[in-house]
Amino acid sequence: MNAISASNLCKVYQNGRKALTNLSIEVQEGEIFSLLGPNGAGKSTLINILTTFLQPTSGKILIMGKDLYAEQKSIRSLISCVAQNVSIDNHLSLRENMLFQGRLYKLDKPTANKRMDALITAFDLREYEKNKVTAYSGGIKRRLDIAMSMMSYPKILFLDEPTVGMDIESRQAMWDVVKKIKSDFGTTILLTTHYLEEADMLSDTVCIMQDGHELVQDTPQNLRQHTGQKVIRIDLDSSENCQDIVKLISDLQFVKGIRQEQNTLYANTQNPMQDFRILNQMLMDKQTRYFSIGVLTPSLDDVFLSLTQNKGGR
Ligand SMILES: Nc1ncnc2c1ncn2[C@@H]1O[C@H](COP(=O)(O)OP(=O)(O)OP(=O)(O)O)[C@@H](O)[C@H]1O
């Protein structure tokens, strides 16, 4: 069963601004699904609709197989949403914050205590229990905020930009937490992000959005194939050497294009996996000074740029 199935969603705000246009997504149970897109792509609008804060202008949404509007109340008990603004109470301790959340979800005391302990361990929060919440770093506050949202053991957790503004160390700690939520609790996670690296590291599926519609929806591995073409990269010892090699290989029939960045050459060829052996042999025969040669798979950045540049005006 899909955890979320949304089809042909449209959202036009009262001022006439179209935020979503025929957007459809399928999120499988237990997966991490990232919505990736530039500012104004419609990510927050979509999260607000899926978490029942906003009504779409048209379209159909099923959450865990239930119609979102016919069964709104029961669906709210299945989901949890962590917004960008941290919602912890600075006057309460870490445990009090979590237990307070448990009371909101009407958990009995033994259940609340059991879940709190499991979450404190899973989220690596034990060492912070004694400290005042006001003394926590932004990253730890955000981790606690997510732990609090997990007190209901939701089927689906929505995370709006979980690592925005964090330093690299806190971001990596947050990635570990997100992966743990999936592996230890089996929760389906839908998150929004601006960071390609984050979508790449975490996601089973990425949906790249622009101007309210999806450009593509696939696994990070398959998305890399979208640019179609692998390239051969050759690292040389000097730019003069590069120019000589450009002259040498640009006449080869199988080389379709060549680009130089400082001492590195990128060659587009018909069949990079085979052609790089021929180039390698040629460079050795000519006794060229080069450090390395290899075939590069396009990064998610390349995919994102090629999609948003090529199809932006759809
Ligand atoms: N309440 C509103 N009224 C009118 N227009 C809105 C409203 N909220 C958002 N919009 C517009 O809808 C479009 C999508 O906005 P949204 O906030 O969903 O995008 P986003 O991808 O979340 O962007 P960001 O990454 O900057 O948060 C934008 O053009 C935005 O200006």
From TrEMBL:
The keyword rRNA-binding does not apply. InterPro entries: AAA+_ATPase, ABC_transporter-like_ATP-bd, P-loop_NTPase. Residues 4-236 form the ABC transporter domain. Keywords: ATP-binding, Nucleotide-binding. The keyword ATP-binding applies. Coiled coil: none annotated. GO terms for molecular function: ATP binding. This is ABC transporter ATP-binding protein.
